[in-house]
Amino acid sequence: MAAYGLYTHIQANKRRSVALIVGLFFLVYVLVFAGAVLGEGLTYAADIDVLMRRGLSDTLYAAPFATLGTALWILIAYRFHQRLIDAVTGGREITRTEQPRLYNLLENLCISRGITTPTLRLIESGALNAFATGMNDRQYSITVTSGLVNSLSDAELESVLGHELTHIRNGDVRLLVIAVVIAGVISFFAELVFRLIFQGGVRWRSNRDDRRGAAGLAVLIALALIALAWVLSIVIRFALSRQREFLADAGSVELTKNPDAMISALRKIDGRGELPGATSAVMEMCLDNPREGFSNIFDTHPSIERRVAALVKFAGGHDPGPLALPEPEHEPKEAESVPAVAEESTAEERPFLPARPPVELGSSGESEPGPWGPHRQ
């Protein structure tokens, strides 16, 4: 099986990804422990060491249920994640009749490497972006925006499709979906706890100051663990997305043998990829995510400048700098419409046609051969 991009980098990337997924599962259990300590601190009067031991005991008891719940959540995402994404973005599956150009470009890439052709989806949006989804060969799909299709040339569009195909073939899409699901569970639970604490108020059942202080300390420890798990889940999820974009760009160049097309596509997409109404989880899967975080820690993608620089350095491409989008094509006005009578067209309007000798209609002699064949009598 051929690898896209540098094989050793892909293997190292997969090992790091597995480690990050394991880290996300570990954070789920940290969250369970924090919830157990929080519950003990709010309902049981004891010293801090007793509360921590009781919290650990509760965690061991709840761990199988937490594992089962997380697995069930992943199963739900496995079956219905595409419907949820389509509902958020307004994407729909398209046929070859609707987009023959797009289908031909994708099929040519897949046939050249023996890849199962994913389904194609289209979002009616002026934004320039694309993303891949799916958990197996029967589910894989590539979604593009109408703005991307209308603004990119065939070579640039082919490079974008090659980028998304590389994500699919390298297993990036499946791992990212799982990571988003697990991180979503952590974020949901963390937000739920903080809402209950800060909006519902906190009450301790003990009147003794020392035990009330121990309960307060247990609550603070639990809240700190929940906040830490939430922040780390976001960082891990973003790291999964960031480190894959360089390899997907390289994989696209390997597929198309055209680094300049990938560079010009990135330049056109730069700053124009925001999908209105899309959640952060959807934007993380896109070719480019213009949303930025604090000090780049929460950025899901490397900058376009860094990606272009990598293609110039390692793929031998040429950077044209920031590119303006082509003007949209307009239908010709009635005054500018082409005359219906062909004889009224001048030679200047058709410079690509060679000069043709005049034809005398109704002449009796044999016709002389013209540039397109014998003249008709």
Question: Could you list some keywords that capture this structure?
Answer:
377 residues, mainly alpha, four-stranded mixed sheet, two-stranded antiparallel ribbon, 6 strands, elongated, disordered C terminus
Textual characterization of the structure:
This protein is mostly helical and 377 residues long. It has a domain at 7-90 and 171-315. Helices cover 58% and strands 5% of the residues. The chain contains 10 helices and 6 strands. The chain has helices spanning 7-43, 48-89, 100-113, 146-151, 154-169, 172-200, 209-256, 259-269, 280-284, 304-315, and strands spanning 92-93, 119-123, 130-133, 141-145, 369-370, 373-374. Strands 1-2-4-3 form a 4-stranded mixed beta sheet, sandwiched between helices. Strands 5-6 form a two-stranded antiparallel ribbon. It is elongated, with a radius of gyration of 30 Å. The relative contact order is 0.12.
